[in-house]
Structures are given as C-alpha cells and as structure tokens.
Amino acid sequence: MADMQNQVQAEQARKKQALIQTLLKNAHIPPRFEQACFESYQPVNAQARQCLAVCQRYAEHWPTRRAQGGGLVLCGRPGTGKNHLAVSMAKSLIQTHQASVLLTGALQMIRAVKNTWSKTAEKTETQVIQDYARPDLLVIDELGVQFGSDTEKIILFEILNTRYEQLKPSVLISNLAPAEMADCIGERVMDRMQEGGGGTLAFTWGSYRQQKSQCV
C-alpha cells in the first residue's frame, strides 16, 4: 500500500512539474528576465522595498486577487525593476498556483488585433481579443511607446475591459509617470485597474542599470 501511495505521489509530482514547465514556456518570459525572482530583486531604497513587498503580497494572496480581478500598474522611471518584479510575480503564480500567465508588449498586442483587419487574416478580431482574455494573468509591458491614437486606446480598452468583466487580473508596466498613464491608455482603463484590490506603484528613483554601469 505504501509503495502504491508513493508511486501515485511521484506521478502527481511529475505531472505538476510538467504543467509548470508548460506554463512557464507559454508565459513568453523574455530571456533577459528568465532568472528574475523576488529573492534576486535588489531594493535601493525604502520605496523600492515597499514596491517589492506589495508585489510579494500580491503573489501570496493570488487566490483573493484572482477572485476579485484586482491587478497592478507598475509605472515610473526606466531601469528601476518593474519588469523584474512583474516576472517574479508571474513565476510565483505559475510555480505555486499553476496559474496561466502571458507576458506581452503593448505594441505587439495592438499589432495582433490590427492584423485581423486584413482579408488574409487567419483569426478574427474577436478571437485575438479572447486569446488575450484567456490567461489568468496578463502582463502588458511598454505602455506609452504606442502613438496613443483613439484606435489604440479602443483596442486596449476592449482587451482590458473584457478581462475586467471576466474578473481576470492584469498588470500594466510603463515608463510613464502615474499622472501620464490616464492620457496614454484612457481614464476608464485606469479606473478599472484600481478595483478588486488593485493599485498603482510608482517607481520614481534612479535607474539601477545606470548605477551598475557607473560601477564597472
């Protein structure tokens, strides 16, 4: 009996690890951040430590965040660790909760929707929007690099509002200041990001990358 239980447990562990590897692959984590984790994040001041703590709590309380649909906005100066913390959250959710996560760029997402307008498109606009609505967590990087046209705002709103209605959390990453985010993605999107226990983290300190290069 004990041997059989051990075999069952071993098989369950194998299937769990196989699922985690599949989820990590499907998350499209950039190679530069494949090793990122909470433990390797280096907070340079009290504000950075607070941002780290908030992201850790978000991952720890994922079942609640998932049930409420609450996301996060990580915005502010470049080189301050926004992507590092976003990837750390994604990997934690995959490894601990086997949640499905997708990381994408704003331009990539907008381009995917616009490509459906071609007569030769393989997918419809609705199908692409559902592709982005499907993951438990969607992480959108580089918000603010797009032109900010009404069409782009409508696409962003359509995707994020679909997720909002389905209680699917999203994490938005931008080098813009918090006050500039509403102009970029629209006030309705920013308003929805504050619901369900969501919030905005401002990364206002100097670039870690610049400090590191000066020490070389």
UniProtKB/TrEMBL annotation:
Q: In this protein, which residues make up the domain named AAA+ ATPase?
A: 68-199
Where does the source fall among the domains of life? Answer: Bacteria
Q: Name one GO molecular function term.
A: ATP binding
Any one GO BP annotation for this protein: DNA replication
The record's annotation in InterPro entries points to: AAA+_ATPase, IstB_ATP-bd, P-loop_NTPase
Against Gene3D superfamilies, the record matches this protein to: P-loop containing nucleotide triphosphate hydrolases
Record SMART domains? AAA (SM00382)
Which PANTHER family does its entry note?
Answer: ATP-BINDING PROTEIN RV3427C IN INSERTION SEQUENCE-RELATED, CHROMOSOMAL REPLICATION INITIATOR PROTEIN DNAA
What is the protein's given name?
Answer: AAA+ ATPase domain-containing protein
Where does this protein come from, organism-wise?
Candidatus Williamhamiltonella defendens
Taxonomic lineage: Bacteria, Pseudomonadati, Pseudomonadota, Gammaproteobacteria, Enterobacterales
